[in-house]
Write a structure and sequence with these properties.
The complex is a heterodimer of chains A (114) and B (113). Chain A is 0% helix and 51% strand. Chain A is an all-beta fold and 114 residues long.
């Protein structure tokens, strides 16, 4: 069965420190992987996506993610966190076409301390 | 800029009322989705549609129905609102041919009193 695990419910990072949010997936075919961010009271915004090719993908707002097939992981990273990055982050996996619905993780809430 | 627009950001309705949540997308996407989001439970799929007049149940369809009469519009209907339907409702849309991910609306915070 397809699934996404985000093992950290909450993470607190100091402003300026680096960030890594973990995502592990289970998918029977070639996975299409996504990270979304949700600011309080808002919808989800796409940060980045991985389809194929280079396993390190760049996204908006200075985020990047690395696809590791051997570990079934797609971790999100940022070298220096800003207070405005405080939000909830969702990892999702799907197939090559829109007929294969995305499966979302339960999210990781990022808190940024001064 | 492409958009998914949800008609209301906040709604307060009474128990037993019929509630309509509207979603419109301007990207000519074939697929549209309704999710509800509750603390600790993540996103749960209520209904989705791959084409006009077509609908399929998601994981939690009970107490809800949907309508898709036009490609750009997907409505979620709460036939008789109950307090346990108090939630954040998110609409999303996507392409069929190639998976580029979903585009989400800003959400509707529904409170049933």
């Amino acid at each position: 069965a397809q699934s996404v695990t985000q093992p950290d419910i909450h993470i607190t990072v100091s402003e300026g420190a680096s960030l890594e949010l973990r995502c592990n997936y289970s998918y029977g075919a070639t996975p299409y992987l996504f990270w979304y961010v949700q600011s309080p009271g808002q919808g989800l915004q796409l940060l980045l996506k991985y389809f194929s090719g280079d396993t390190l993908v760049q996204g908006i707002k200075g985020f990047e993610a690395e696809f590791k097939r051997s570990q079934s992981s797609f971790n999100l990273r940022k070298p220096s966190v800003h207070w405005s990055d405080a939000a909830e982050y969702f990892c999702a996996v799907g197939g090559a076409t829109g007929f294969q619905k995305l499966v979302f993780g339960t999210g990781t809430r990022l808190l940024v301390s001064p | 800029d492409v958009k998914v627009t949800q008609s209301s950001r906040y709604l307060v309705k009474r128990t037993g009322e019929k509630v309509f949540l509207e979603c419109v997308q301007d990207m000519d996407h074939e697929n549209m989705f309704w999710y509800r989001q509750d603390p600790g439970l993540g996103l749960r799929l209520i209904y989705f549609s791959y084409d006009v007049k077509m609908k399929e149940k998601g994981d939690i369809p009970e107490g809800y129905s949907v309508s898709r009469e036009k490609k750009e519009r997907f409505s979620l209907i709460l036939e008789s609102a109950s307090t346990n339907q108090t939630s954040m409702y998110l609409c999303a849309s996507s392409w069929t041919e190639q998976n580029y991910g979903y585009t989400f609306g800003s959400g509707t915070r529904l409170t049933v009193v």
